[in-house]
Amino acid sequence: MLDLFTIFSKSGIVLWYFQGTSDLFTNTVNELIKNVILQERAVQSVWNNNSLSLQYRLDNEFELVFVVAYQNILKLTYIDKFLTEIQLRFRDKYKQAIQNCQFANDFGDFKQDFDEILESCEREAEQLAQVQRKPRKYEESEKSSKTVASMIETKTTFIGNLIQSATGVEKKSEEVENLSANLSDNFEDKKIVSPGPRQMRRFEPKSKKNPASPQAKAKGKEPKKWVESIDMNSLDYSEQNKSSEDLVNSQYASKKDIGTLAGSLKPIEVDYDDQEDLIEEKKNKSKPVSKQNGAKQSGLFGSLKNMIGGKVMTKETIEPIMEKMHDHLVAKNVAAEISRKICENVAQNLEGKHFSSFQFATSIIKQALHESMVQILTPKRRVDILRDVFETQKQKRPYVIVFCGVNGVGKSTNLAKITFWLIENNFKILIAACDTFRSGAVEQLKTHMRHLNALHPPENHAGNTMVELFEQGYGKDPAAIAHDAISYAKDMNRDVVLVDTAGRMQDNEPLMKALAKLINVNNPDLVLFVGEALVGNEAVDQVTKFNQALIDNSPVKTTNPDLVRTIDGIVLTKFDTIDDKVGAAISMTYTTGQPIVFVGTGQTYADLKSLNAESVVKSLLK
Amino acid sequence: MLERIFEEKSVLGVSVAILVVVFTLLFWLLKRSKSIKKCILLVGASNSGKTRIFCQLLYKKNLFSQISIVSNQGEALIEENGKKKLVSLVDIPGQDKVRRKFFSLHKKTAKGLVFLIDSSTFQKEIKDVAQFLFEILTDDQLAKSKMNLLIACNKQDIDLSKGQAFIKSNLEKEIELLRKISGSALQSTGSSGESKINFESLLKNNKKQFEFSNLKYFNVDFCETSCSQEDEKLFDLKNWLLIN
Questions:
Q1: How close is the nearest chain B Cα to the Cα of A389, in Å?
Q2: Lower CB count within 10 Å: N or C terminus of chain A?
Q3: What are phi and psi of B90, to 5 degrees?
C-alpha cells in the first residue's frame, strides 16, 4: 500500500529504501526536502505533492530522516505509529553502525523488520476500522437506558433544556417552571401583525409639506474659505517651471549621491544600542574564529565534554524556553502565527538531541533558533538583478519588474530608488505608470523622472536619456498600458521597464483580478511585493491573499501549474522607522518562501540596501 | 626555607593556580594545532554529485543520495598508481539555504577545494555556478593564503555533458561579467556578514580579461570526473588529492 519508504541520513546518503512502484523516488523526496525541511516548515503532518502524500520523521540524535509516501486517495491512519516504531527498531538494530558513520553497511536485512512492522500496523488499523464501522446495537445506545416517561417533552422540560444548553447550568425544576410561566405569557399575548396597506402609507415621503426656500437653493454651495488669500498659480506644479539646479538639490537627492550606488547594493546594518553587544562585536572582530556553530567549542572544553556524560533534549526542557522565545519574537513584531510555527519547528529539530552538561539548554535553543531564522531569510535561489538585466540585454528585450502591494507602502518611492540604482549601473529605464486610479500618481512619477534625469543628464551617458515615463493618463486599463509600455521599451531599446501599479487591499476581489490580469498578460521577469516593515500580523494576511489571488486567477492554473506566476520577491520598505523591531522581514519571507530583494531605508534616492540576514536575526534575538 | 615560603597559604594557592594555567595552555595549544588546515572541501551547486563522490571515495560504494541538509565528514584512503594517502574530506551541501553556513564553518580548516560542476546541466545553471565560484574566489579568509582549487566537471558519463575546455572558457566569461558588475565596490560585507574582498585585488594583472591563471591566491586545475558504475573516471581527481 505504500508507494515508497526510505531512510537516509541528513547528510544525503540513502541507507535503506523500499519502493512499491517503479518510479524513481529521488525527485519526490528531494521536493520534500526543498519545500518542507529546508524551508523550516516542519510542522505539517502530511505534505501533498501531485498525487502523493508524504510524511516524515526526523531523528535528531543520529541525524536520520524517515520518509513515507503513499497515494493521496488512500487515507492511511497508521502512518504516525508506523514511523515511530520503524524509527525505534532501526535505531536499536543499527546503533553502532550509525554512530560510527558506517553508511556503507548493508542494511538489507532490515526488510524483515520493515515487513513485520508494516503488517502489524496495518492489521491494527484494520481492526480499529472494523470496530468503528459496525453499527451500534440497540442495547448500546443511550435511548434504551431512558424510560418513556422521561422522554416526553413538556414546556418546562423544553425550556429547561434550552437554558442548560445555553448556559451550561442545570436549573432546578421549580425555577424552570416559574420561568416557563413568564415566557409563555409573553409568547401568547403578543399578536404580531404584519403591516397592512393602511399602515404602509404612513411611511411615504412628506416632500410636499416642507418646501425648501427657493432662493437659498438657487445660490448653490459656496466654496469654504480656509485661508484669506491664495495664489492659485503658485500651487500649479504641472508645468516644467523648475530649473535643473532645484531638481538636483531637492529633498530626494543631492549631487553627492551620484555614483554611490554602483554595483550591488550594500547590505543593511541594524543598530541596537546595547552596551554588552558592542563589546561582543569588538571581541569577534579581533578573533577570526567565528562562533557561528555553538557545537564547535574550543578544544579544551571539547575534549572534556566528551568525557562527561551528556543530557538529552526533551519536550519538557524545550517547552518553557520556547514559550519565552515566542513571546520575545512577538514583541519584536514577528507575526504571532509565524512565531508559533518557527518555535514548533525548532522544537521538532531539537528533540532527542544530546548535549553536554556544560551547555545550557537555553543557549542551545537560542543558537538553533538563530540558525533556523538565518536559513529562513537566506534566499533559496540566486538573487542578482544586475546579472539578469545583462542577460535580457543580450536577448534584446527589456527586463520587466512589476511592483504590487497595498495602499501606502511606498511602491512609487521605492520604484524611484530602484530606478536610481539601475541608472548608476548604466541601464536605460522606462517607468510605466499603470497606477491610473490615484490622483497625482502620474505626476509623482513625472517629478521623479525629472529629478533623476537632472542627476544623470544625457551628457554623462553618451546622449541617452536614462529615464523615460510611459503614461496614458488616468482611468485606462493598466494591463493594456503595461503591454504598450513593454513594446515601446523594446522598440526604443530600453533595458528595464518598471511597472508601478495602484495600491489595493488584499480582500478587494475585482482589483486582485485586475492585478492578476496585468501579470498574466505581460509575463514580467520579476513580480515584487512591496510591504512595509511596520506591519505586524497583517503581513501574513496580505502576502497570503496576494499570492492566492495570483494563483486563482491564473489561466494556466489547471493545465500547467508550474507556470503560474506568483510573487517572486519582496521589497521591505520603511526600515528606518522600526529600530530593532525587524520581525516583519521574517513574517513575509516565511509566508511566501521568497527572498527579500530590496530594503528601503528612507525617502531619498540613496536609501536602498540589500538584506543582511545575520544582522537582522541578531537584532531579533537580542 | 622552601617550607617557610609554602607555609603561607596564599603563595601555595598562587603557585598551584599558575601551574594549572600553564598546563591548560599547553593542553589547549596541542589541541588547537591538530585542527588547522587539513581538510579538502567538496563544494559545488546543488545536484552536482558531491555526496556521490564522497561515498565513492570513502566507502568505495555507489550509494543513492538525496539533497544533503548537513555536511558529510570523513577520512578517505585514496589509492592510485601504487600511492596511498589518508585524506580528510568534507562534503558541503549545495543548497543555497544552507551552503553558506557550512562553508563558513569549514573554510578555516580547508587546505584545498574541489569544486564540482554538473556538466550535463551546465548551460542552464551557469549563472548559479559562476555566482558560487565568484563567492569562493572573493572570500577573504581563503584569500589569506595560497589555496589549491580543482574544478571537476562531473557527470561526464552522460552523453550531452560538456567538456572541461568548454566549461573553463564559459566560466571565465561569466566571472568577467560578474567582475564588471561588482565594479568599484571597496571591501564590503556579503549578505550574511562575511567579508568580501574587491575582486581586482585578487588578480595578478588587472588589465586583461579574467582567466583562472590570473588569480593571485588560487592555484586552479581542471579535470573531468564521472562516478557512474559503468564508466568510473576518478583517477584525475584521485591524483590531485594525492598531490595536495
A1: 11
A2: N
A3: -130, 125
Residue A46's pLDDT band (cuts 50, 70, 90): confident
**CB-nearest partner of B182 from A13, A29, A264:** A264
Q: How far is A493 from chain B (nearest CA, A)?
A: 20
Task: Compute φ and ψ for B12, nearest 5 degrees.
Answer: -60, -45
Judged by DSSP in three states, A150 sits in: helix
Closest Cα in chain A to B72: A11
**SS3 category, A53:** strand
Q: Is B39 helix (H, G, I), strand (E, B) or coil?
A: strand
Residues of B in contact with A33 (CB under 8 A): 66-67, 69
* Closest residue to A14, CB basis, from B60, B64, B104: B64
ipTM metric: 0.82
pLDDT in tens, B103-136: 888 888 888 889 999 888 888 889 999 989 988 8
Give the H or E element holding residue A526.
strand A526-532
Distance CA A427, CA A393 (A): 10
Would the CB atoms of A425 and B181 count as touching at under 8 Å? Answer: yes
- Tell which wins on pLDDT, A180 or B44: B44
* Nearest C-alpha neighbor of A290 from the set B189, B137, B193: B193
Q: Choosing among A258, A382, A384, which should be mutated to test the B contact, i.e. which has the most B CBs within 10 A?
A: A382
CA distances B27 to A15, B24, B130, Å, are 39, 5, 43
CA distance A608 to A268: 9
Is the per-residue pLDDT at B191 higher than 70? Answer: no
User: Residue A17's closest chain B neighbor by CA?
Assistant: B64
Q: Can you tell me which residue has the cell 571591501?
A: B187
Give the residue among A552, A582, A578 at the shortest CA–CA distance from A565. A552
Share the mean pLDDT of chain A.
80
Give the number of other Cβ atoms within 10 Å of residue A86's Cβ. 21
**What pLDDT shows up at residue A296?**
41
Quote the CA–CA distance of B151 and B223 in Å, as a whole number: 6
Q: How many CB atoms lie within 10 A of CB A446?
A: 18
Give the CA distances from residue B225 to residues A14, A573, B231, in Å, rounded to whole numbers and listed in that order: 22, 47, 10
Touching check for B66 and chain A: CB below 8 Å? yes
Which 3 state secondary structure label does DSSP give B76? strand
Whether the CB of B33 is below 8 Å from some CB of chain A: the reply is: no
- B60 close to A (CB below 8 A): yes
Nearest to A14 among B65, B95, B98 (CB): B65
pTM (two decimals)? 0.78
Identify which of B104, B105, B106 has the alpha carbon closest to the alpha carbon of residue B196: B104
Beta carbon pairs, A and B, within 8 Å: 156
Q: Cα separation of B36 and A149, whole Å? A: 90
Band of pLDDT at residue A286, cut at 50, 70 and 90: very low
On whether any CB of chain B is under 8 Å from the CB of A264, the answer is yes
Any chain A CB within 8 A of the CB of B201?
Answer: no
CB-based contact A14 B66, cutoff 8 Å: yes
Average pLDDT over residues B19-23: 90
- Which residues does residue A274 pair with via DSSP β-bridges, in sequence order? none
Least confident window among A289-303, A560-574, B60-74, B147-161: A289-303
Q: Quick one: pLDDT at residue A75?
A: 77
Partners of residue B195 on adjacent β-strands:
B189
Which is nearest to A261 in space by CA: A601, A495, A613? A601
- Does the beta carbon of B182 lie under 8 angstroms from any beta carbon of chain A? yes
What percent of chain B is predicted at pLDDT more than 70? Answer: 87
Identify the pLDDT of residue B29.
79
Interface test with B, best of A13, A284, A394 (most B CBs within 10 A): A13
DSSP class per residue in A93-117: HHHHHHHTT-TTS--TTHHHHHHHH
CB of B65 less than 8 A from some CB of A: yes
